User: Fold these one by one.
Assistant:
Number 1:
Amino acid sequence: MQKVIEITDFSAPELDVYARISENQLLNRHEPEKGMFIAESPKVIERALEAGYQPVSFLVETRHLETQARELLCRCPEVPVYTAALDVLTRLTGFRLTRGMLCAMRRKPLPAVEEICAGARRIAVFENIVNPTNIGAVFRSAAALNVGAVLLTGACSNPLYRRAVRVSMGTVFQVPWTFFPEDTGWPQKGMECLHSMGFRTAALALCEDSVRLDDPKLMREERLALIFGTEGDGLAPSTIASCDYTVRIPMSHGVDSLNVAAASAVAFWQLCAEPGRSL
């Protein structure tokens, strides 16, 4: 039996997760087993449920209870559902809900780097990408273009921040990902980890000795890790120096670089999405 609760008191502690707890507080670094995140929109919530994430509660616009939210709510009959009109929910959360539905969910323990890379031939590594919109966008491209796994350095924005999840359209729940452990120094120990798993490493960077993205040598690599840098400065010099290849995307009209989301999509298309190839 669904427990539907009409919102009458904005200060109710059950609503803190939607209204008064920050993304960093939800992450709960000190007690990660208690960490949560917010999934937004029916499609995103559906993908999270299919990936095995546990719902804690729903926040649903009243008019959607019997329409687009109905099927998802029926899958979670014991989970409380808080509801109100859209203007009430907007005042509560501080933003307009996408398709009238949010879900607070438990985080899962992060898998080991070796675990998610075990069967992958092409992986992506992101160094210090702090913008959650960019994180969401790179995951959507990774899912669409057959990237086997995504690895992130410690300073990256968390892929389960609400904006990253929404921009990704829930593909953060479909592509295996994890952070390098804090005691795995990047880039030196991180590169050693990648090489120990049989990956050759390719830094996307503007250097004089860069090879073109369409260089046949890259396509012939059995296992390849594509490494992308920050939105402003790109990859650290020490990271570039540690890689087997430095790779550039050929450009015209005097343009020297692309946003990391665009650059990764181009690289994934060239090196990960070849028709008929098993990745």
Note: The mean pLDDT is 91.
Number 2:
Amino acid sequence: MLLKETHRFDILVFMVIASIDLKDGHVVQLKNGKDLVLQRDDADTLIADFDTYGEVAIIDLDQAMRNTDAKGNTKNTELLKHLLRKGNVRVGGGIRDVKKARELISLGAEKIIVGSAAWAADAQGEILNKPFLEELVKAIGKQRIIISVDAIGEKIAVKGWKETVDISLLDGAKAAEQYCSELLFTNVEKEGCMQGTDVALCKKLREAVSCRVVVAGGVKSVEEIQELEKAGCDVQLGMALYTGAVSLKDAFIACLDFEKTNGMIPVIAQSTAGEVLMLGYANKDAFEKTFESGKLTFFSRTRNTLWTKGETSGNFLRVIRLRVDCDRDTVLATVEPVGATCHTGSWTCFGAEAGAASNLERLYAIIAERFKNPRPGSYTATLDAKRVREKVMEEAEELTDDAESKDEVIWEAADLIYFVSVLLYKEGVSWKDVYNELDRRHKER
């Protein structure tokens, strides 16, 4: 097991991106993009671990090297599709046409990484493949595009890093940023070597462009990540994670801007439905304990001590994810509350209601509880697969044929949503699955 954890919770932060490179259907790490150093077959475990701490980059190396079948698929294609909805994923490797990019976005990729296809076939007069990039921007939007400025000897590397073109790294980066939201810079000579990256070159690149810069290749320590962070660069890690040289937990804490906040980072807690629950402050030790326990922990400025929310009342805040703002000085924590959040007994410190507001996820959770632990007289627990389908049809008919006033529409719609939620539970489908499908359809249009 790469990352040891007792409690499963997602921490989505965008300072350090973990990489999963795929080749021949396996997870691999290569040295200089060529020599196999390690191979694994636990992609599901890896993405669960990595997504805990932030974005995950999935790279199809066979696509990059054109090891495809007649349909353009590789031995990694099905595994890649399987992983796309498992986390906050960006995808790269051999994306050469707009159709492929649109497909990956519709399947769940948040961003796509374009490499060789971004560059002109020859460097005579043109640096970029502008027709392709213009079509790509029109199809999926600039914010979803990352362009690789991989370099060997400070020249742009293409075709799976097997060749270079006569375009300097800095010139290429300056030209490319108008078509993307990010640049991914891999120092190919350092890739997989665990000898550190060329920080000076990274700083030159950072100064040359205004878009986000993500550095990959050779980064070997938290100290190096901190140095790159202070220079304004994010980091994509591979070998350092797989060998245990870098802990994502340590990298997360190290990149927070404690200097700006006098050692205390404001932490806003919100429910999974988006309700703001409370505000507290955390120092480094508090974040350490949050990671260790899976329960949101703060530092009490009045008592001058750590405190885990709920340690006396039992009303814990179980951490789902943490997101850091763009200035690295505030954290947004998405949590699952156990009981009321406020010491007054209110659900939130910003209101007087004792219970959570209704939403589809809360309804689904209540239905799940009724089936797992049926109470005497529970109507929900009596619904079998046949009966719930009958009720969905019955309630849909009442909504469409009988409901005339606004109140009647509300009443019948609530009944229909309840029975649809029961049906989803019976079929092992969550509302998130439905949202994902709606999102996929939206991205296709």
Note: Confidence is low (pLDDT under 50) at residues 1-13.
